[in-house]
Amino acid sequence: MKTVGVIVGSLSASSINRRLAQALIGLGEGRLAFSFIEIGDLPLYNRDLDAAMPPQALRFKSEVKAADSLLIVSPEYNRGVSAALKNALEWGSRPAGQSVFTGKSGAIAGASGGNIGTAIAQQPLRNILSHMGVAVLPGPEIFLKVNDDVIAPDGTIRDEGVRKLLSGFVDAYVTWTARF
Questions:
Q1: What is the pTM of this model?
Q2: HSE-up of residue 163 (Cα within 13 Å, Cβ side)
Q3: How is domain 3-178 classified at the architecture level of CATH?
Q4: Which residue of 64, 79, 90, 115 shows the fewest CB atoms closer than 10 Å?
């Protein structure tokens, strides 16, 4: 069974993106093996630390390297990628020539409280991941408006239309990861 490292781009314990990640994991159980890769303890990336990376960065790189594929579930902050996620991507791709992302498959999803979800942040994230050598699932794209009526705080999907949409995403992701 393929292993999937799940990276949530929000540091909030009550993140709606963590809810979305839990919902996706629930739909993919038994077909993929999921584990969260935490990013909240990473210090700000500093090239001066490349020669002696902090233990948190080494842990992050090790967990990403161990995963066959990545599922990144992230908010959109100020029309872009969250600073926490971008920082994690910097640590994982450094030093030059030692990226742990190269050759992995991946998928992106995101949730927000607004009507356009995370659509604007996902395009630059696709560009960043592509540059780092991650083959990102081209579609379907998931950028949802989420509240308690859609996905409960524990990740339970309450809306059947959303369940169908997310199930299609997970089905496509399972097929995508099998190609790599």
A1: 0.96
A2: 10
A3: 3-Layer(aba) Sandwich (3.40)
A4: 115
